[in-house]
Design brief:
- It is built from six helices and 13 strands.
- It is of the alpha+beta class and 259 residues long.
- It has one domain.
- The strands form three sheets. Strands 3-6-7-8-2-9-12-11-10 form a nine-stranded antiparallel sheet, with helices on one face. A two-stranded antiparallel ribbon has the order 1-13. It has a two-stranded antiparallel ribbon with strand order 4-5.
- The protein is elongated.
- The N and C termini lie close together (9 Å).
């Protein structure tokens, strides 16, 4: 089967999945955590993974009246009760704390099925620690939308959806917008829209979609897999429905590549 790779298409700048969990034991009434499990997870993952220094990344934003906003990255130490396991091929990593397992894509996005396999690997190793109950599932995609010089405004690239304020639609630079909606008691949707920190002009738009599901006692991969796929469909539908015809028209059939 041939797939078309289109130039100027949105690129996935970052993708991650979070599983919030608790560990139950027959000897303990309340959820618990044994710090030795950090080492056990590393043994289970095997020689293809290494422990990484636990550092996080924050964005520092500085503004002055009448001047362009400046954005810089700041690296900060993570809490001591979090471990990072990075694959040798630098494709993905796992972040583990006593309540959260995070699966991060750290290089080019490999496709949904491969990403799902990474999540499955993380879950399989976590589930060997004891009886695991997942109570929250999060899936997040940060998409990079390139812009051309003569079409800077947000509304040129995104449709006038109900979450997009009128003032923001006319913006071409120095914008950061956050939207949150409780879809129902079990589903929460977050949308962040901003410029990417870039030396190019106009800088790309970062379209950040985060779907969060609140479920009780998901304890096997069939249940978890089903919930993750549901969140993926929600994000995909929201992303596809938000892109304007101008964006799709900007994709040139002459720039297609086969894969």
């Amino acid at each position: 089967m041939q797939k078309k790779i289109l130039k100027n298409r949105p690129m996935i700048a970052e993708a991650l999945c979070e599983l919030h969990f608790s560990v139950k034991s027959s000897q303990e009434k309340d959820p618990y955590w044994d710090p030795r499990w950090f080492g056990k997870i590393l043994q289970q993952l095997g020689s293809k993974y290494d422990l990484e220094p636990a550092q996080g990344k924050m964005m520092r934003i500085h503004t002055e009246p009448g001047q362009k906003m400046s954005i810089s990255e700041v690296h900060t130490p993570l809490p001591e009760n979090r471990m990072i396991y990075k694959h040798h091929d630098k494709s993905h990593l796992f972040q583990l704390s006593p309540q959260i397992l995070t699966v991060n894509i750290i290089n080019d996005y490999p496709g949904w099925e491969t990403f799902l396999q990474y999540i499955n690997t993380g879950w399989e190793n976590l589930s060997k620690l004891g009886h695991i109950e997942v109570n929250r599932v999060g899936l997040r995609y940060i998409n990079r939308i390139p812009r051309s010089e003569n079409s800077k405004n947000v509304e040129h690239w995104l449709l006038n959806e109900d979450w997009l304020p009128q003032e923001l639609r006319k913006q071409s630079e120095n914008f950061i917008f956050k939207f949150e909606r409780e879809v129902n008691s079990n589903l929460f949707l977050k949308i962040n829209l901003s410029e990417e920190f870039s030396e190019t002009s106009p800088s790309p738009i970062l379209f950040d979609l985060d779907a969060i599901s609140f479920k009780k006692s998901l304890s096997d991969w069939v249940q978890i897999n089903s919930e993750i796929k549901r969140l993926h469909d929600i994000i995909r539908d929201k992303f596809d429905s938000s892109l304007s015809k101008n964006y799709y028209n900007s994709i040139s059939p002459n720039n297609e590549e086969k894969k």
